[in-house]
Amino acid sequence: MEPKKTKNQGPENRNVNNEPELVTKRKKVTKEDPYAPLTDHLEDLRSVLIKSAVAITIWFLIIFSTVGWWFPVVSKGADIVVLGPFEVIRFYLRTSGAISIGFSIPFICWFLWQFMRPGLVEKETQFLKGSLPVMLMLFVTGLAFGYFIVHPLSYFFLISMGEQNFDVLVTADEYMSFLLITTIPFGLVFQLPVVALFLHHIELLTVEVMTSMRKYAYFALLVITALIAPPDVFTHMVTLFPMILLYELSIILIKRKERKEAAKAAKEEKARAKQEKKSQK
């Protein structure tokens, strides 16, 4: 006997088991809801980009309006020339833009941190939260190393070498390009210890790997030095030395971290064994 067919039920009668219905309304990405739809992440990323652009714009207006104050600091007494009226404004705009981006980096890092935090596990969150100030300090240290050591040494060395056979004229654009090349890359390279610690934190790098790959790492650092530093041996040596120190510092920090982790694990194991022995009694 065939079962009796029933008519289609209305929307109000379909959920007969009182099962929770799917909620299609999008929610804001929070730490409690890290698995939000892609559109929510795109909206948050758009917010990060807008806030970063606002921070850069504010700094740009401040810096561009104080050209007379910071220009002697940037030029550092170098004899630079301009080849036309438009080059003056182009130099001021380009320099103001570069400085404003540099000053906006702490704000941009904070905005990115707020964006990434919901999708990170607790282990990664703790590491990055404690590393942000260190990353900023290392970036500023790298910029200072490039500005006070690499830039003047390489610039005046190359100028003096050119003056032996030529009348050297350095335009404002060329000077600015040279200044950026000899400063910003070092701010990035000085992040090496933080990157190494993070890779070790997520179990992708060990001391054994770094020590066994030391000679290849030195060669890679030499190649990086040749790419970011001016083409003279003296500047290469001055630039390579702190990079090697940073690599060795990374090894020391990872060794120290591994010793702490081993001591903590041994302490926990000892406490666990003591607890088991106590429970057996």
From TrEMBL:
Q: Report membrane topology.
A: Multi-pass membrane protein
Residues of the region (Disordered) are 1-24
Spans of biased composition, class Polar residues?
8-18
Q: Which residues cross the membrane?
A: 48-71, 91-113, 134-158, 178-200, 212-229
Annotated InterPro entries: TatC
Give GO MF terms, alphabetically.
proton motive force dependent protein transmembrane transporter activity
- List this protein's GO terms for biological process: intracellular protein transmembrane transport; protein transport by the Tat complex
Main subcellular localization, coarse class? membrane
Location in the cell reads: Cell membrane; Membrane
Keyword Transmembrane assigned to the entry: answer is yes
The UniProt entry's GO CC annotations, sorted and at most eight, read: TAT protein transport complex
Q: Which domain of life is it from?
A: Bacteria
Q: Which key words tag this protein in UniProt?
A: Cell membrane, Membrane, Protein transport, Translocation, Transmembrane, Transmembrane helix, Transport
Tell me which NCBIfam families the record gives: tatC (TIGR00945)
Q: How does this polypeptide assemble, per the annotation? A: Forms a complex with TatA.
Record's function text? Part of the twin-arginine translocation (Tat) system that transports large folded proteins containing a characteristic twin-arginine motif in their signal peptide across membranes.
Q: Which family does it belong to?
A: Belongs to the TatC family.
Q: What is this protein called?
A: Sec-independent protein translocase protein TatC
Name the gene that codes for it: tatC2_1
